[in-house]
Amino acid sequence: MSFKPGEVDDLASLPDLNQEVLLRELKVRYERDTIYSYVGDILVAVNPFKQLPIYTTAVQEEYRNVLQKADRPPHIFAIADRAYYDMLRDKRHQCCVISGESGAGKTESAKYMIRHIIHLCHSGTTGEVLENQILQVNPLLEAFGNAATIMNDNSSRFGKYTELIFDAEGHVCGAKISDYLLEKSRVVQQQHGEQNFHIFHYIFASPFKDKYALASKDDFPYIRDERLFSDREAAHQHDIVTRALKDVGFDDNEMEMLHDVLAAILHLSRIAFSAPEEHDPASLAADSASVCARVSSLLGVDASKLQSALLTTTTITRGEAIVKPYTTMQAQDSRDAAAKELYRRMFAWIVSSINAILDPEGQAAKAQPEQRSRLAPPSADKRFIIGILDIFGFENFDVNSFEQFCINLANEQLQHFFNQHIFKMEMEEYRRENVDATDVAFIDNQPVLDMFLNRPMGLLALLDEESHFPRATDDSLVGKFHKHFSSHAAFSVPQGDACEFHIKHYAGTVMYDGIGFLDKNRDSLAPDVVHLFADSSVSVVAESFQASISSTGQIIPSRARWSSNVGKRKNKATLSNTTNKRALTVSAQFRNSLLLLVDNMAQRAYKVIAYSPDTTIEPGAFSCQRVLDTAGIRDFKLGRTKVFLKYYDAETLEVKVTRFKQLAVTFQKVARGFIARRSVVQMQREREQRAAQTVEMMKTVEASAHAIAQDREIPHMGPWTFTCDRLTIPCGQSDPDAADATDALVSMPIKMKKTQRRRRQHRTPSTSTT
Ligand SMILES: Nc1ncnc2c1ncn2[C@@H]1O[C@H](COP(=O)(O)OP(=O)(O)OP(=O)(O)O)[C@@H](O)[C@H]1O
C-alpha cells in the first residue's frame, strides 16, 4: 500500500518506519498545522508556537468517549479522553508522562490535558467550584515556579506531578500536587538572557509597587530585566495570579503575606556589606541599615537579629556559643542563601496550602450541608487517580551547572522508564512466554543511570561524600569524577585543567561546569537564620521555617490546616529537621524523590490488556486462536499464557466487544419486550377467565344465599379464585393466603346473609350463619 506523506495519523502503521521517515512525516504534518501524530500508543506533539483553533469547546466535545483512536485525528484531548474513560471502565488509576526537551510544549500539553479531563467529568454546578480551583492551580504555580530561559520564555523551573482524584462515578473530588527541585538559585542569579521567576516581574507592575517601594527594577540586583514583559502585560499577569490565588482559596491576609515575602526578598538583594580588607569582618554598607529594617519589618523579625544573622555565625562548642564574623563574601553568601531559602519555602507553603485546600476530605468538610453526601470523600479503594507528570525538560546551555545536572538526571530516569516499559519489559515478556520476537534495537541508558546513581561509586554518591568534607572544593570533586569515570563510555574529560566534565546523555552530550556544585548540593543555611525566621510574626515565614523536610526534599509545614497531608506524607518519607546537621543534601533528596516518582508511575502506568468476553469458552490457546481468527486479527503471537497483539488490534477487539455488548443489550431489550407482551396477553386471558369464574361464583353464592333463605342445602363450592380489579387472590386449602382470601370472599355473602337473616329472624330466630 502506498502512503501520501503526512496523511497517516499513526506513524507506527507506516511500512518502513525509521528516524528519517519519522522526522519527514512530522515535518510535513507540522507544515500543515497538524501538530499531533501517534506512534503506536504514544502521542507526539510538535510545538506550533502559534495559537491553533484546535482547543475550542466544540473540539473538546468531539473528543468525548471516543471509542476507537482512529475515529478522531490525534490530539492531546484524545489522550485525556482515553485516560478518563479507561479509568472509569477498568476502575484503575492512570498515568500520563509528558516528556521532551525544554520548550517542547510539555506544560501546555499538561494544561490542555487537565482542562479536557475537567471538561469530561464536569457534572453541573455541584463540582464547579472545585473544578475551577483545579484549573486555577496552573496559572498560580506558573507565576511562582516558571521563568524565562534561553530556551523557553515560560520555562518550568520545578517538576510537577499532578494527581486528579475521582470517585467511582468519575466526579473529581480532589487533587494533589507533588513538586520537585525548584531551581531556587534563580532567585539570586540568572544567566545572561534569562530572568527571575515571573512573579518578581509582575509585582513591579502591581498595585503594591508603591507600598513596597519598587520604583525601578534597576535598583534590585536580583532582577535582570531583559524586558520580556511590558509593564502592561506584567500588570495583567499580576491580575491573573491574584484571581488564581483567590479562586484556589487563599484569603487576603495570606495574599498580603506572600507579597510581603516577595518584597522582602527583593529588598534583601539591596543589602550590601563592606570591610576594610577582604578577610576582615564585614559590616553593613552605608544605607543598608534602613534596607535591613524594611526587610525585617516585612518578614516580621527583629532588625538587629537579622543584621547579626547576616553578619555572623554562631556555633556551639562544648556548651559554649562562639560567634564568628563573616567576611564580606561570606555575608553576601549568607544573604543570598536566606533569600533562596525564603523563596523555596514560600513556594512549598503555596503547594502545601493548595494540597490542603484540594484534599478530598477537606473538600467534603467545607461543602454545604445539602451537598455533603454528594461530596463525601470516597474511601481509598473507591478513589481513582489520573496522574500527569510534567517535569523540566532536558537542558543543554552554554554553561551547565548543578541544576542542569539534576534536571538531566531526571530526564535520563524518565527515558529509562520508557525504555523499560516499551522495550525491555515487553521483550522479557516475550521470552517468558516462548514467543519468537525480533529484538527491537534501542539505546539502553541503564549504564548512564548507573553512573549517576550507583553506590558507593556513582556521581551522586561521590558528590555527597565530597559535600561532607569541609575541605573539599569543586575542583577536588571534579577531579574525583575524572578519576573514577574517565573510562566510562558516557563520560569524557575535557582537555586542559578546567573544572568541567562531559556526559553523553540519551539526548546529547552536555558539558558541565563543576563550579558551585558543592555549595549548591550542601545547601546549608546557617542555623541562626533558620531560628530567626522560625520565630517570625508572619505566619507564612514562621510555618515554613518550622516545617520538617522529607527525605525527598519536600517541605512539610506543621500548621493544623495541613494536618491531613502531613499524616499522609509522613508515611512515604522519613522526616529530618531543617537544622539537623546530618540533613540530606540536595542530590540525596533528589535521588529519593526520583525513585519515589518512578515507583509511583510503575504502579499506575501500564496494564496488560486481557480480553475475556463473558462467554463459556474455555480459556486456552485454541479458544484464543478461534476468537482472534473470527475477529479477523492475523498478526498475533500466542505465548504460553498470553496472547501478544499489536496495540491497534486490542482496539479492534474492544470495538468488536463493544458492538457485541450493544447487540446483547438490543437482544435483551427485544426478548424482554416479547416475554413481557406475552405474559400480559396471558394475564389478560386469565383475568377474563377469572372474571367469568367470579360471575359464575357470584351466581352460585347468590343461589346459595337464596337457598339459605329458603332453608336449602348449600352446594359444595370447591377451591375458587376470586379476581378483583387488579388483585388476584388465589383461594385454596394449601394456600397460605387462603384465610384472608376466604374472608374477603365471604364478606359479601355474609352481608347478604345478614340481610337475609334479619329478614328471617321474624320467622326462624334460632338460625346462625357464623
Ligand atoms: N500546543 C501549543 N499551542 C500553541 N503554543 C504552544 C503549544 N505548546 C507550546 N506552545 C508555546 O511554546 C511555549 C513553550 O511551551 P512549554 O512551556 O509548554 O514548554 P515545556 O516543554 O514545558 O518547557 P520547559 O521544560 O522549559 O518547562 C509556550 O509558552 C507556548 O508559547
UniProtKB/TrEMBL annotation:
GO biological process: regulation of actin filament length
UniProt keyword terms in alphabetical order: Actin-binding, ATP-binding, Cell projection, Cytoplasm, Cytoskeleton, Motor protein, Myosin, Nucleotide-binding, Repeat
Binding-site positions, ATP: G100, E101, S102, G103, A104, G105, K106, T107
Molecular function terms, GO-annotated: actin binding; ATP binding; microfilament motor activity; protein serine/threonine kinase activity
CDD domains in the record: MYSc
Keyword Lipoprotein listed: no
Residue span(s) of domain Myosin motor: 6-603
Region Disordered, annotated ranges: 749-770
One GO cellular component term: myosin complex
Pfam families: Myosin_head
Localization annotation: Cell projection; Cytoplasm, Cytoskeleton
Residue spans of biased composition, Basic residues class: 751-763
Family per record: Belongs to the TRAFAC class myosin-kinesin ATPase superfamily. Myosin family.
Protein name: Myosin motor domain-containing protein
